[in-house]
Write a structure and sequence with these properties.
224 residues
Amino acid sequence: MEPTASEWIKPIQRQSLSERAYTSLREALMEGRMKPGDELPLRPISKSFGISATPMREALLRLVTEHALEMDGRGRISVPHLTRATLIEVRKIRGFLEGNAARQAAIAASPEAVDALEQLHVDLGAAQDEGDFSRAIGLNTKFHLKLCEIAGLPVTHEVVSNLWVRCGPLLSHLYDAGLPPNWDPHPHLRIVKAIRSKDPEGAYEALNMDIEGGGAGLLAHVCD
């Protein structure tokens, strides 16, 4: 069975093949380019990446160890389905950590950094308008991680990245029912405005509004 998201697979030609395969798979998970239940058969995916089975197996097993992928009793590796309880827990942790990053960004971010954050949302909107929902989901991920970056919180960035690896595949369903609610303004723009205005609490509240409201429809795609 061929991987279901072949468009994100690119041949790997340099050294550290396992590390590069791991990074590519991890980014694909974070950006919703793989869906819950997708299988990752070793030989076909190794062929798609243009590497041998050994480094690919190492990359896959590393993600299994991190609970980003799962392996059944027959050794088949796939993208796990989240339970409702897990999703709610992840959202609460993200709300606290990313909310704190938003607060810190409102205190510390430079105007140029905020411009870069805003541009990610502009690009996201353009991708939505073009119907390129896969790219829009990836840009949404980048927006949230950029927030941690401009806040100057590298440990928070690392932890939040790991959470996005766990919940990213579920975002593949983000546009199943069409575009998300037409907030006016969008929570991303509220976040940007609050950071520009040096309003830490406003940034925290807008971030949590985005998590709670924007992802509400995803609860329909989790296991009980």
